[in-house]
């Protein structure tokens, strides 16, 4: 039996546990950069696996390492939710006015599953794997806060991987890009200045709404 097949079997054997973790996280969605219940749940699971972790209380991020020495590879999952009321009849639906409508409950579950497998094979690692459960992705603040807190140091991260579920993608397939991120959270402002005048002489005015409409159309091409 080859090593890859062994890992696939071990991952498949975790299915029931993964479903339970995902449903538990789905029931306790929290938004923003303060996720006390989410962090408490994740920390409990890690400790039950025998994985010590550090909680950045102010920004609700959890960092844990598996292995020792060598190159450090970071696995990151965002675990915050959206301020959306869930309107389903699922027995594990949320009831606090928030919802994991963007799949971050799955992201947290995936990283917990990876943690369990990696811990089991810790003695086989030739380097260190750092786990990061991150808050605040939906509000564009979590990654910046985590980096400022030092998650890329001690040990210093050499490479990192983050994934996102995609409902349009066929089950069992993965999309990836080489050399750059396939998605990123960012924002910017465009200031458009107009010039007033009279409707009888539009040629002497600058209509900012017309410019904004053109920008919107062009940027979406």
Distinctive features:
221 residues; alpha/beta; 5-stranded mixed beta sheet; elongated
Brief rundown of the structure:
This protein is α/β, with parallel strands linked by helices. Helix content is 33%, strand content 13%.
Question: What does this protein look like?
Answer:
With 221 residues, this protein is of the alpha/beta class. 33% of the residues lie in helices and 13% in strands. The chain is built from six helices and five strands, in the order H-H-H-E-E-E-H-E-H-E-H. Strands 1-2-4-3-5 form a five-stranded mixed sheet, with helices on both faces. Strand 1 and strand 2 form a beta hairpin. The radius of gyration is 22 Å and the shape is elongated. The mean pLDDT is 93.
In the predicted model, the low-confidence regions spanning at least 5 consecutive residues are none
Estimate the mean pLDDT confidence.
Answer: 93
The percentage helix is 25-40%
* Major sheet summary line: 5 strands, mixed
Which strand order do you get reading across the main beta sheet?
Answer: 1-2-4-3-5
Going by helix content, strand content and strand pairing, the class is alpha/beta
Number of continuous helical runs = 6
């Amino acid at each position: 039996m080859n090593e890859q097949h062994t890992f696939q079997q071990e991952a498949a054997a975790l299915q029931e546990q993964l479903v339970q973790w995902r449903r538990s996280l789905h029931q306790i969605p929290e938004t923003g950069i303060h996720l006390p219940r989410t962090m408490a749940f994740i920390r409990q699971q890690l400790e039950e696996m025998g994985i010590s972790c550090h909680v950045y209380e102010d920004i609700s991020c959890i960092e844990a390492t598996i292995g020792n020495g060598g190159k450090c590879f970071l696995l990151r999952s965002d675990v915050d939710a959206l301020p959306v009321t869930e309107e389903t009849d699922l027995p594990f639906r949320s009831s606090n006015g928030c919802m994991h409508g963007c799949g971050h409950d799955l992201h947290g579950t995936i990283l917990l599953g990876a943690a369990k497998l990696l811990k089991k094979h810790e003695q086989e690692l030739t380097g260190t794997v750092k786990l990061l459960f991150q808050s605040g992705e939906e509000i564009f603040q979590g990654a910046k806060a985590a980096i400022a807190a030092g998650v890329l140091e001690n040990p210093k991260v050499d490479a990192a991987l983050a994934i996102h579920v995609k409902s349009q993608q066929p089950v069992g397939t993965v999309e990836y890009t080489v050399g750059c991120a396939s998605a990123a959270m960012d924002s910017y402002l465009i200031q458009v200045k107009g010039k007033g005048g009279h409707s009888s002489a539009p040629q002497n005015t600058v209509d900012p709404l017309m410019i904004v409409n053109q920008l919107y159309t062009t940027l979406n091409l």
